[in-house]
Amino acid sequence: MALDYGPPVVAQPFLPPPPPYQPAPGSEPGPLQVRNMEAHDVDFVARMLVEAFSDKFEHAVGKSRMEGAVKQSASSLGRSRNVWHRYRIAMYEGRQAGAMALRFHGDSAEEDFQCGEACSYLGCWGTRGLICLGCAVDGTSVPMGQCYVDHIGVDASFRGRGIGKMLMDRADYDARQHGCTSIFLWVKQSNRAVHLYERQGYGITETVNGSCFMRCALGSADFYKMQKQL
Ligand SMILES: CC(C)(COP(=O)(O)OP(=O)(O)OC[C@H]1O[C@@H](n2cnc3c(N)ncnc32)[C@H](O)[C@@H]1OP(=O)(O)O)[C@@H](O)C(=O)NCCC(=O)NCCS
Q: Helix, strand, coil proportions of the chain in percent (round to 5)?
């Protein structure tokens, strides 16, 4: 008697399992959220930039002009929608707590800086300092396949709660989404944030004990380039 084994089984080619689904850091429910920049974040991002980098801004425009630097920065960022895509905003319990700017290869958008406007907020002396600062920090080119953490700042009242780490995790995620294989940043050698970056897996790949121009423009010339493979 012939046995009925049913239809022949066709061997399936081996397929690797799909990679585990990874939600973007800051997208899960909880007190800490990370989202893209929106129009109502302009003032916060400007204040964050100036306050988080107060040593550089004080050196550039003078201590008495810091509020003018925030206003100038907000005004120019407000006009420059073409750079908003770079920013991620960290929210803590619904309040703006931190900001980070990422740049990828080929992103050459520039903020709309207007000298006359800067003069009205900062005077001639402060504007000159700001232009020098801009020249010294804007020169980083981003090689193909890499992501540059242009700047990261957390409001002083929110520091030490893991917000910086969450933003750095988000930077890794976004960089991978863009197909990058490494991510890098520049940091002042004496900045405590070096510890955070080391914990996040970054290593020092370049030490710069820079030129007189850097010292004059930034108030410091001693920086590390730190990089991480993704
Ligand atoms: C660096 C910074 C973004 C970290 O944000 P955060 O939410 O406090 O970070 P986390 O809570 O995830 O991690 C704590 C780590 O942040 C760093 N950090 C904390 N306060 C800092 C400060 N005032 N300045 C610099 N780094 C600081 C330290 O590495 C700290 O770890 P440690 O206590 O072991 O030294 C934030 O402190 C900041 O805005 N600092 C001023 C701006 C700045 O220096 N930005 C980096 C320039 S490259």
A: 45, 25, 35
> Does ligand 1 come within 6 angstroms of the Cβ of 189?
no
- Residue 208 alpha carbon to ligand 1 centre in Å: 21
**186-190: average pLDDT:** 95
Q: Set out the domains of the chain in order of their start, with CATH numbers.
A: 32-106+113-229 (3.40.630.30)
**Mean pLDDT for all residues in the chain:** 92
- pLDDT above 70 coverage of the chain, percent: 93
Q: Which residues pair with 26 in a beta bridge?
A: none
Entry field: residues in the chain: 230
Amino acid 94: pLDDT: 96
Q: What whole-number distance in Å separates Cα of residue 44 and Cα of residue 40?
A: 8
Q: Which of 56, 192, 226 to mutate to test the pocket of ligand 1 (most atoms within 8 A of CB)?
A: 192
